[in-house]
Amino acid sequence: MGDAETGTGTWDRGVGTRRLRAPWGRRSREAGWEPPDDWWTPAVDAVCEAFATGTDLAGPCARLGEARARSGVGIGQSLDDLAAFTALAGWRSPPIELVRAMAEGWADAGRGRETCQDPLTGLATQEYLRTRLGELYRGADGGPSPASGHRLAVVSLDPGIDPWRRAARLIVLGYELSRFFTRGESVCLIGRGRIGVVAAEADDLDPRLDELRRGIGWEHGAGVWSVALPPTHREALALVEGLGRPG
Hints:
Blueprint: H1 17-30, H2 42-53, H3 58-70, H4 75-89, H5 96-109, H6 126-137, E1 150-157, H7 163-180, E2 186-191, E3 194-200, H8 205-219, E4 222-228, H9 233-244
């Protein structure tokens, strides 16, 4: 009888949870799910049941994200798994609200609900970046501020890619950049396509940015550049505001 999957890749919502679960798991395994025998979780059935009954999917997707994080599955593989489900369900690309729900669930499983973190990426927010800049520009006492010894590195995604791919790449980039910058740098979300890193000047900063550009940046189609922090706090805030605008 097959798996109730039509030739167009869309599903009849009347199918049961079990008949939806099997082809979803198969698609994820074919796409490289590791380990192959450790895919199922009760949260999978919650997503299948919500789709089959036509109820809201955001809550079950958040539960699925939490389950994946608790079992040690990375955010990239979790999003690939969600994409396998939504393709099976008939979407050309995963709806952004389901991507956000899964990402928030994944992030919340591994951390507390700190208000300074963006729930989608787990990065520090733009508000935190402004606070950090205020600290660097404070207390100069007429001399050079500590900001003069720092640089703002920017990792920017192509604004022309569709919102789903941009959101997915941004989530993965946030995770990878948090592992790349481990010397006290502030890694912050500037906008929905840009991440800023406040880093102290060092002899190896340019080589590290070159490594980032050739590695993580190239893998995700992201540009990488840096600018010295401007002389005044007001100019620094204007720089961040400009970088955060779309486009």
